[in-house]
Structures are given as structure tokens and as C-alpha cells.
Amino acid sequence: MKVKRTVPAVIGALCLAATACTAAPTSAESGGADHPGFPVTIENCGKEYTFTEPPSRVVVMNGGSVAEVSALLELGLGDRIVANAQTYGASEVPDRVDAIAALPTGDIELNEQMDIPREAMVGLAPDFVISTYDGGFRAEGGFATRDDLARIGANTYAPARACGEVGTVSGRPSIEDSYRMLRDFGEIFGVGERAEEVIAESKRRISAVADRVGDLPEQKAMVIIPGMAMGGEFSSVGGNGIWNDILTEAGAVNTFAGATDDLFADLSKEQVAKADVDALVVVNYQAPDSDADARALFDQFPQWDAAKNDRYVVLSDSIYLGPSNHLAVERIAEAVHPDAF
User: Which residues are CB-contacts of 24 (< 8 A; sequence separation ≥ 6)?
Assistant: First the structure.
């Protein structure tokens, strides 16, 4: 994220270009003793947004993610949220599910995409709206656009790597993308020091895993989300996602990393049967029994080393973009290199 301090003389022009400020604020209005470090201007999805003070009426859109709301909670910003549409129902972080469930929802009737429609969004009078991807601001989806929200005084944000269509990725997603989002929120809310503390602790724990598994042979792992299959039986196998970087840090490699450039690979049963799978990563998505899902796959493919050694791990939100990727690294490492722990 590019951040620059904005001098009062040009704030008015920036507001007209990027936000719905009604007048150029004075020095006292644009930070001062009450908001040290403000105003700040950030670039997001090709546009600039100026924050004259930390947001206080935040709306978090759904988009099938909990990364954004989890990051806000990790940074101690839950009290800024006036409506949250994100939920997952499982987490590696203690009490995270309950903390998300306790957030206000704005009593919004969600649309068929289980997200916040335009009229309801405008009615919430937010000053900051966070979407999982840039499509959350597209009129054709029935959503308030970035320009709509600017006119009512709300800045907008989507994670940098998710500025395109949902399900698309550019380059190789990594844990650094999670850190970037934390730093973005740190700048936007004036809690940069807290963001750096969270990132430093995550890096410390990942480094501790590397000390244990760094010299061991890489294990081949398959990532699958049984409850998310929208096509064939193996249409939700992890392809080009952040999990590849997480696996690398854990001393493993995604068996199907080269099968697609997309987030998920849609595989045949024959492709899965022929694959070398030393360990299985089952991602819990609204699953009644993820352990049973793992056992069913082992029964179906007893030739896998993972099946022979009963080697699998169940994860939920830590395998995605978000503030807890280090937990996924630790648990996968323990599963694929049990003798190292």
C-alpha cells in the first residue's frame, strides 16, 4: 500500500477526487492532537482514498470471507463495526467464532448472494466499507458502487490481490498478502503499531516451524474443501491459492499446484487416484464431520501414503487470507512432519 501524508492545502482536491468530503478541513479538523498521523491517503484498486480520521462506522461485506472481519478483530477494532455480513462458523483462533457472531449485523436483509444490497448499504450511513473483492462495489451485482459510497462520505477497500473478479488471482498469493491487509488497516485506523506486533508474532511462529522442518524432505499434500464442491466430486481441490505458500512454510508442497491457474482445481477421480498424497488438508466449510470426510477419502484412495499413515489435518479460517496463517503453518507442519514435534 502506498501511503502519503496530505497537507491541508490539497485535501479539498483529494476529497473531490476520491471521497465525499464536503469541505477542505483545517489543520485541527484533519488530525491534530485528536488524530495524530492523520490525514493519510491510500491507494486501493487503482484509486486514492483520503482518511482525515480513523473510520468509526465500518461495514464489512460478505463475499464468502472472514479475513477482513477477523483482521479488524485482531487489531482491536470490533467496536468500529456497525454492520458485519461475514461469518464462517469455525476458526482456529479461540473465541473468534463467538466474537464474530456478537458483532452487529445492521438488521440487513441480505440479497440472493448473501450480501448487502445497495439501498441497505446506503441506509447504514457508513464512513468505511470493506469488500472481499472489487466486485462487491459493482452496480451490476446490485451493490453500492465506490462512487455511490463516496457521495455519502464513505471510503472503500478490497484486499489488494482481490481487486478483480471473485475467484481470480494474480500471481502467487502468499502470507504477505495477509500482512499487507493488516498493515493497510493499521494505517487506515491509526493502529499501525498494533498491526506490526501481530505481524511480528506471526512471523516468529512461522520461523519457529522452519527451524524444525527446514531440512526435512517436502511432503506432498492435497487441500480439499468437501463442503464447497460446486461441480464434480473433486471441484474444490486447492489450486493456486494462499495455501500453497502456507504449505511451503510448513515443509510441504501442494500436489495439485500445477493443475490450474485458478483458485480451485476441478479434477477427475482418476487424476486424484494417481496423485502422490503424503498428507491431506481438509478444510472445514459448514461440514458436520470433517474427520469423517477425511476417512471417506482414505477409504476411497487407500493407495495414498496419507491413507496408509492416517495423516491429515482439519483447518478452517487459518488456511485463507487473514491474520492467523501461522496457525495453519503450525498444524500442517505437525501433520506432515510429526516426528519433528
Answer: 8, 9, 11, 12, 15
Residue 330 has pLDDT above 70, yes or no: yes
pLDDT value for 33: 56
Q: Which comes out higher in pLDDT, residue 88 or 31? A: 88
Cβ(114)–Cβ(85) below 8 Å: yes
Lowest mean pLDDT among 11-25, 51-65, 253-267, 301-315: 11-25
Q: Residue 59 in 3-state DSSP? A: strand
Q: Grid coordinates in use for 187?
A: 494505517
Q: Where are the beta strands (DSSP E) in the chain?
A: 3-5, 40-44, 47-51, 58-60, 81-84, 128-130, 155-157, 219-224, 234-238, 252-254, 264-267, 279-283, 312-315
Q: What is the pTM of this model?
A: 0.87
The structural domains of the chain, with segments of one domain joined by +, span 1-52, 54-168, 217-340
270 contacts: CB under 8 Å, gap ≥ 6 = none
State which amino acid sits at residue 258. G
Partnered with residue 55 across adjacent β-strands are: none
Say if residues 300 and 234 touch (Cβ distance below 8 Å). no
Q: For residue 280, list its beta bridge partners.
A: 222, 312
Cα separation, 310 vs 335, whole angstroms: 10
Considering the four listed CATH numbers 3.40.50.1980, 3.40.50.970, 1.10.1200.10, 3.30.300.180, the one that applies to the domain covering 54-168 is: 3.40.50.1980
CATH 3.40.50.1980: does it fit domain 217-340?
yes
Contacts of 7 (CB under 8 A, 6+ apart): none
* pLDDT reading at 212 higher than 50: yes
- Could you say which DSSP state residue 172 is in? -
Look up residue 123 and give its amino acid: G
Q: How far apart are CA 119 and CA 98, in angstroms?
A: 28
Q: Which residue has the cell 502467487?
A: 172
